[in-house]
Amino acid sequence: MANIVSNNDWDWRIYCGNKRCNFSIELKLKDLKNFFDCRFNRQIYETNKEYDINIFSDLYDEIICESCNSSPLFIINNNHEYILNPEKIIPCEQCEKPILLTRLKVKKGTKLCTPCARGEEKNKIQKIKDHNDQAIPKSPPLPDHLKTCMKCGSDATTRYSVINQQWFIGCSTFPQCWWKNKLPKYLGNGLFEPMTSARHIVDANHSFSIKGSSDELLQAAKVAFKVKDKSTLKEIRIEMDDRKKSRKEKGKPENNLLNRYLSAVIELEKKINE
Q: How far is CA 159 from CA 105, 181, 230, in A?
């Protein structure tokens, strides 16, 4: 992306790369604390001065599109330079967070993000990185039906979110593939607590979350249609319709992507009932 001199009244823009989604949000430096603290319902850093451009790297895999639930997202500055681009992720060799592209432009060949290069250890996230043996609980096992990435087919693995302080399931090829899924509570002896949002299309051996992204639901609907699973197709249609109604009740603008997917599912449901 070429440099553009701009008078934009924002410092950074976060936007979704899904061509069928128009989500974007613009932030100033002074907005970062309120935006991220409210998003995660907690104070992320101890001091206000820690809320700077590096927060995008720290929390990158936690930032999700508010319209279609896709991730990861694109982040640019007000000169329209990429800060982070999902297609050009280079992880820090120390903390594994993505190195900002503007840093890589200045420090060519660097293998460390700015906080690691400075040796900063000022917040909870850094402390967990440096002392993970004590701070991060032991990983639970993977359920048999969630041992494969639902997006690319590679092996799945457990990952830990220092923001939510919970284990979750992600693709083993991360950051090449950013698929992730909630990990059900482990009860011991190979048993897991049933997840109210987890669904499994038995005849197709396909698992998905009914609370997942619109893309995940549409894919599941297509799978259900192929194996003539009417009940799953109906549940997906109801979930999408509820999301549409919820947006209207909350005064949010219509999600065109969701509307298109809902129409597609309705058509599949009509065909399967013919």
A: 29, 10, 34
How far apart are the C-alpha atoms of 83 and 255, rounded to whole Å?
Answer: 26
| Helices and strands (H, E) in the chain, number of each type | 9, 11
pTM of this prediction?
Answer: 0.57
Phi, psi for 209 (deg, rounded to 5): -105, 130
Cβ atoms of 192 and 181 within 8 Å: the answer is no
Q: What is the pLDDT of residues 211-268, one digit of tens each?
A: 887 888 888 999 999 999 999 999 999 999 998 998 888 887 788 888 889 999 999 9
Please give the DSSP secondary-structure letter assigned to residue 40: H
Contact indicator for 159, 169 with CB cutoff of 8 Å? yes
Return the number of other C-beta atoms located less than 10 Å from residue 43's C-beta.
12
First CA to last CA distance, the chain: 49
Q: Per-residue pLDDT tens for 149-171?
A: 877 888 888 887 766 677 888 88
Distance of CA 247 to CAs 70, 241, 244, Å?
17, 10, 5
* Tokens (6 digits) for 11: 């410092």
Write the DSSP string, 106-125: HSTT--S-HHHHHT---SHH
Beta carbons of 45 and 51 less than 8 angstroms apart: yes
